Amino acid sequence: MNILKSLSSKRRFAAFGLLIGFSALISTATATLQPAKASAQSCDKVNIVYCGLPGTDINADIAAFKANYTRGSDNGHNDLQAIYNWAGANSASVAGMNSSNTKLGTMYRDGTIVVNGTTVATDSWVSARFTQGSGFVQMTAFYALVALSAGVMGWLATRALRLDRAASSAFLLVVVCSNSGNFGLPVTLLAFGRDALAFASVYFIASSVFSYTGGVLLAASGERSVADALRGVLRVPAVYSAIAAALALAFHVTPPAAVMRPLALLSDAALPLMILVLGMQIEKATWPERPGVVAVAVALSLVATPLAAFGLAHLLGLSGPALQAGVLQSSMPTAVITTMLTLEFGGAINFVTSAVCAATLLSPLTLTWIIASLQKG
């Protein structure tokens, strides 16, 4: 009886973790896909204003800003007024801009904005059109190819190791699902700054969507029929949350504060919860029954997948921050969410826990080399 109660408690905890984890996904998606509050000045398709403002003097910049706002279009886009209004501007404030009430400032890579030697803002973001250039579509395609390559390598390994169905499902789960959220995002920010973080967030969103759909399917298929595994996907609230979030973004619907504030609170709890779960799994970890299989899974996650990601990034033409973020995110250790999925849907929990712990503990060795290689260009 105590064992059954313990198992039931673990599964309720795992289900709660799935809900909180996807709340973090929704908040990240909203922050990433909505326009932010500053724009770049080089000519690039991802810029809100293609070539920025002239930059000759304050009066020229004010005149150009007013012209852009009045025209409402730039480089084939007709949404400038909507974007500026979202950022806090309106027709009256734009019309009243002059050299006395408007200042030029510099935004630095750490998000600090300095005007006349005084810091006036911190934690600022650069707005971008992620639907063009090396943005949302390209980064999402990159993740899909990385996940596919990891899956193919994992499948070949399961055949070579002659794993049974349950072990194969667990093996593929830990190889394909990487910790691109609570591990990958802060590491990317620390190593390459906010430019790369924007692309890393897109990668995280794509990987999270897969974790709560394909990851659930992999976890459930280990001990269930295909039909039961598909029903398992439909039991995850995150699937319906993803659909609701996609519709809200597609139709430019802003959820009311009564909805977003609770989601923000759950999102803030995601990182501590994931770390708590990781600590619980490390504390309960035992020597794996087949350490060689764990070693192969960890090697595929930390070595083979990043090498494949390098090639795929160049194949897709990724460069600069997009290249750095994409390759670094693909190099992360196995996601902690895999233990929750395995607890919830059944499977080789000992193997999954061992793989998560081993990959997490060994990842600083591989990530150090990868970050150094990316910094060299």
Order of helices and strands: HHHHEEEHHHHHHHHHH
Structural class: mainly alpha
| CATH architecture heading of the largest domain | Up-down Bundle
N-C termini distance:
58 Å
Helix content: 55-70%
- Beta fraction of the residues? under 5%
Indicate the low-confidence ranges by residue numbers: 1-41
Question: Would you state the CATH class of the largest domain?
Answer: Mainly Alpha
Average predicted local confidence, pLDDT: 78
Q: What is the fold named in CATH at topology level of the largest domain?
A: Na+/H+ antiporter like fold
Largest sheet: 3 strands, antiparallel
* Spatial order of strands in the largest sheet: 1-2-3
* Shape, principal axes of CA atoms: elongated
What radius of gyration results from the CA coordinates?
A: 23 Å
Number of helices: 14
